[in-house]
Amino acid sequence: MTLHPPGSPGSTGSSGSSGTPWLIAGLGNPGPWFRQTRHNAGFLAVDRLAERHGARFRRRGLATLVAEIAVDGRPVLLAKPLWFINLSGRPVAALLRRYGVPVERLVVVQDDLDFAFGSARLKRGGGPGGHNGVRSVGEVLGTRDFVRLRFGIGRPPKGQSVGDFVLKSFSDDELAAMPGELDRCADALETLVRLGLNRAQDTLNARPAAEAPSVPEAPPVPETGHGTEPGQGAEADRGAR
Q1: Which of 38, 89, 145, 167 has the smallest set of CB atoms within 10 Å of its CB?
Q2: How much is the average pLDDT of 202-224?
Q3: pTM (2 d.p.)
Q4: Out of 39, 53, 131, 226, which one is annotated catalytic?
Q5: Catalytic: 39?
């Protein structure tokens, strides 16, 4: 399956057999040194979905890697913006325009401090919760009416800043549990495309709490989202948020 921008050679148009595609955009920071950090959970999730379908990411447009898959014949674009995470909005918006994807078919996959590792949630809309990548997408699009898959990364241990925590690699225990957690997210994303948000939420939330991976929870820190202080700009501009 090869998707073409509307109006380009090979495009089926809005009424073509391929249908309107979905865009699933994982958020993260580019570069190998960030690959297994907590802030790159979005990249890891779309990587897993691409692997499941035997798809490869290729450079497309405005500094973005894109892979194309089909879920029961429904076209899906998987994207990894290559700007730093707090600048994710522009490349995501460029892909929506290029492929004629409506915002209601956009899914943003993010890391989330508000959930323990092993927890993930799907929702439509809502505030960014301190996540500057989600904030960037909402600001550039002018709406928050897109779906978010929030992958729990837990909270930093006492004495460690949020910025340092999200840029550290997952622990050995977390990495050992990661394949199963990413598969749960991939299952939910496929269900979303096939059957809609409500059924996908049921899929993601179906596992009893007792089955969650045994990873020690850190003490809570103040509700700061992915920032540390309101004036944290230097760290954020470096891609930390």
Answers
A1: 145
A2: 52
A3: 0.80
A4: 39
A5: yes
